[in-house]
Design brief:
The protein is of the alpha+beta class. Among the domains are: 3-163 and 258-296, no CATH class; 331-389, no CATH class. The protein contains 14 helices and 13 strands. It has helices at 3-11, 31-55, 71-77, 86-100, 158-185, 195-198, 203-220, 241-267, 271-275, 281-308, 311-315, 336-344, 349-355, 378-383; strands spanning 18-20, 58-63, 66-67, 102-108, 111-114, 117-123, 127-135, 138-139, 144-145, 149-153, 188-193, 232-237, 319-323. Strands 1, 6, 7, 8 and 9 form a 5-stranded antiparallel sheet that branches. It has a 3-stranded antiparallel sheet with strand order 3-2-13. It has a 3-stranded antiparallel sheet with strand order 5-4-10.
């Protein structure tokens, strides 16, 4: 399968409800396939960036609004199945979700297994019913109801928003830039033929051999010598080639940057963030979390919570949350004064340690809350200050 065919499957609806995203391979490239490669590069760069960030997030589990680290927590974060660890599982789940617009996770025998391919049918009784589910060489011989699986659909439909609209445009731009590059990098010259050579009875034969055989081999060879007959004089033209080469290289780079920018926009990634610009990185990270990571985390949290707990349990505070706080690096020393403010306003030591991604302290005093005398209730402020002890 050519890369254009594979990308085309992301754009067009699959036949008979089949969803197979396991493999693709690149055969001999056509001009269209070469143009599509830059779209694939931009797409995979954006998806890879999001997947790597999400794979580092902890899936926190709660019982009656208190954090609880039990079997569900260990399975989601460390050993979801026999083949993958928690980081690999999260990265693949997010990648498939964003690349194909959906992902199916089978829950069976206390394992969570990401499906490679499946068929989806809608039932009036059970909602979605998934059949022909496979993972690698393993094919499940049963169907799965929607309450037995995690089924996520992407909040960003990359197939329609980005690929379908831009594929044709970038194909034209890349073909134009490639043609200019090949033309600029080719050999040019002038061939001076004297009147004496034209008068030779064998001129036609000699001229055809020279143009079709000698010159062709000379231009294609890395190192070569061109023999010329009496009356023929060849002069190479090299002016302007360096400048044109630079311009075409810049044009290709500009197209790649533009493709990255469009992919970033589709997924909610700030353009400066995906390009790695250092200027304004703090604002870019905040925008990345707000527009891209947190909506995705909320989607995953809601699906896992809905399938792992009953409505009564959810009402009592049982849930699973994807914690995105570990994405940003915190400078503990540089944030010391800010941390002191948090502690003085009622945060416990362990709450602050968790916010920084540090392990909690097992001592009981680490869970105590303190408030400095600077803070007081509204009632006290209305009375004119603190009351006597």
């Amino acid at each position: 399968m050519k890369i254009t065919d594979w990308l085309g499957r992301l754009v067009k609806p699959p036949k008979a409800g089949q969803h197979d995203v396991t493999t693709y391979r690149i055969e001999k490239e056509s001009s269209a396939a070469s143009a599509a490669c830059i779209d694939a590069y931009a797409l995979f760069t954006a998806v890879g960036m999001i997947a790597r960030l999400m794979s580092g997030c902890e899936f926190k589990t709660f019982r009656e609004n208190s954090e609880y680290k039990g079997i569900e927590w260990a399975a989601l974060n460390f050993k979801p199945n026999r083949e993958q660890n928690g980081t690999e599982f999260k990265r693949e789940m997010v990648s498939r979700l964003l690349l194909t617009g959906e992902v199916l996770v089978i829950r069976q025998n206390k394992e969570s297994i990401i499906a490679d391919s499946f068929s989806k049918n809608e039932s009036a009784v059970y909602g979605y019913v998934f059949t022909q589910v496979s993972r690698g060489n393993r094919c499940f011989d049963r169907s799965f109801r929607s309450d037995e699986v995690f089924y996520l659909t992407s909040p960003v439909n990359a197939k329609e928003i980005w690929l379908q609209g831009l594929m044709a445009q970038y194909e034209k731009l890349m073909r134009s830039a490639s043609e200019r590059f090949e033309k600029a990098d080719g050999e040019r010259g002038t061939l001076k033929v004297s009147a004496l050579a034209k008068g030779d009875p064998a001129f036609e034969t000699t001229f055809k051999n020279l143009m079709n055989d000698y010159f062709k081999g000379y231009f294609n060879a890395k190192n070569a010598v061109l023999p010329l007959f009496d009356g023929y004089e060849y002069s190479a033209q090299t002016s302007g080639r360096t400048g044109t080469y630079t311009n075409d290289t810049t044009a290709v780079r500009t197209i790649a940057d533009e493709a990255l920018g469009k992919a970033a926009q589709a997924f909610g990634i700030p353009a400066s963030y995906i390009h790695g610009d250092a200027a304004g990185i703090s604002d870019a990270q905040s925008a990345m979390l707000t527009n891209c990571i947190k909506p995705l985390a909320a989607l995953i949290s809601a699906e896992i919570t809905a399938k792992q707990y009953t409505l009564d349990e959810i009402a009592q505070g049982d849930r699973t949350e994807v914690d995105t706080g570990s994405i940003l690096h915190h400078d503990i020393i540089g944030s010391g004064d800010k941390l002191d403010k948090l502690f003085g306003s009622g945060w416990s030591h362990n709450e602050i340690r968790q916010a920084l991604g540090q392990p909690v302290c097992p001592e009981s005093w680490a869970n105590e809350h303190f408030i400095t005398k600077n803070y007081g209730s509204i009632e006290e402020a209305l009375k004119g200050g603190e009351t006597d002890a």
